[in-house]
Amino acid sequence: MIESALDFPVYSIKAVAHMAGITEPTLRAWEKRYNILAPQRTESGHRRYTKRDIYRIIWLKHRLEEGMSISQASTLLLTQSETNLLDSLPLELKTTPKGRKTNGRRSPNAAIEATQNNEVRSLAVLIQELLKSFLDFDELRADQLIAEAIGLYSPEAVCIDIIQPVLIEIGQLWMLNETTVATEHFASNICRTRLNSMLDSLPIVKDGPLLLTACGPYEFHEIGIIITTLFLRRHGRRVIHLGQNVPAVDLEKDLRRLKPTLVIFSAARTESALMLNQEIKPTIEQVRANFLPELIFAYGGRAFIEEPTLHTLFAGHTYFGDDARQSVALVDQLLPR
Ligand code: B12
Q1: Is 270 exposed, middle or buried (0-12, 13-18, 19+ CB in 10 A)?
Q2: I need a labelling partner for 91 at 20 to 30 A (CA). Which of 40, 106, 253, 295 fits?
Q3: Distance between CA atoms of residues 291 and 305, nearest Å
Q4: 311: domain range?
């Protein structure tokens, strides 16, 4: 029976082997010889592990590294509290104080804590169910879950604490070949549509300095900057979103026509950060030199979190923070009201 987000059987043996650093044959042997793992099976007979299984496996691995035999470790496992098991998690999955993020990604365990404390239907459960609905191509369920999340939590929490970790998880499953491109397209399209309708439901701000948001040339990862746009608009800022893959020539025309105060670009991959540097930055610098001297160029996105050396390319310009929440605080510093 599924009792919490720890108990969703979604991870294949390959994914578990990768995450825990244990070979697949070893996992199968532990299952066969010791009464410690009982993964569920899909209709076609493939094993599906839960997060709780993964925590147990990592705990066992640590005991073996300390010199214990697997039979001793598996006997000891049965006496361990859940807290001890969670303590053995690698940094990426480690429990952090509630709501704090690890590496731009909310710790799933912080939310699991919330479930255990009987708060409202927790973020962790919503995350796991939304993930499952995407993996099942269940559009209706996905839509219901996002609508429910919007009803329970702030748009900021829905975007950063639910949609973002689910998409990152899908990205990881996709990288591990555990899911297909179609699943990723399905999930990102639903999220994008929902975010756009959240944007549409906001009143149009007509006053104040104009902000432009965009993805640079050949950048199609748009959800992060849509979220940034949403947060800025919710904060009462006048923002026009120019969309994906904005070429430098078009940008120049838009800058001349719209005369914004701030232009904000997002790059999810190193390649697109390099394109920002080669094409967008010189265009903006030229426009600044010629007719908009006050124009501020800001940048952000996953590329700069994963590859911090990229910042050196943008010296003299404004890094807009590791996530969309930070951009709201930064805009108030740059453009006080
Ligand atoms: C959805 C998705 C796609 C979709 C995007 C759809 C869309 N309309 O946006 C599509 C199908 C287009 C796509 C394509 C590709 N993708 Co892709 N994709 C993803 C996925 C699964 C989710 C991205 C996402 O929306 N995340 C959720 C958002 C909310 O997070 P975020 O973007 O990081 O944004 C947050 C912060 O970074 C920050 N932020 C972002 N931008 C900005 C800007 C500012 C100014 C500020 C302040 C903050 C900020 O705030 C956001 C909210 O907190 C990621 C997995 C992942 N780890 O993210 C892979 C991922 C990014 N993709 C990847 C790859 C490799 C590709 C492709 C090259 C695949 C291919 N072979 O074709 C292409 C490249 C396309 C291109 N030229 O851009 C890799 C990138 C690896 C790397 N470092 O280079 C990832 C990490 C998957 C993986 N694990 O390998 N992808």
Answers
A1: middle
A2: 40
A3: 32
A4: 202-334
State if residue 164 touches ligand 1 by the CB under 6 angstroms criterion: yes
- Contact by Cβ (8 Å): 190, 27: no
> 0.90 exceeded by the pTM?
no
Residue nearest (by alpha carbon) to ligand 1 atom 19: 171
Residues 37 and 148 in one domain: no
CATH code, 222: 3.40.50.280
* Residue minimizing CA distance to atom 62 of ligand 1: 171
Of 105, 100, 125, which Cα lies nearest the Cα of 2?
A: 125
CATH number at residue 23: 1.10.1660.10
CA of 188 to the centre of ligand 1 (A): 10
